[in-house]
Amino acid sequence: MKTICLLLFGLTLAVASMAGPSFAEDAPLPRKPLSVKLWPGRVPGKTAEERQTTLSGQGDGVQRITNVNKPTLTLFEAERPSGGLSPAMLVCPGGGYRLLSFDKEGTEIAEWLRSIGMTAAVLKYRVPSNRAGAFQDAQRAMGLLRQKARQWNIDPARIGVIGFSAGAHLAARLSTDHEKRAYAAVDEADRVVCRPEFAVLVYPAYLARDGYALPSNVVVTSRTPPTFLVQAQDDKKYIDSSIAYYLALKKSGVAGELHVFPSGGHGFGLRQPDEKPIARWPELCEAWLRDRGIMEQASKNAID
Question: Which spans in the chain are helix H?
Answer without folding.
Answer: 108-115, 131-147, 166-176, 239-252, 281-291
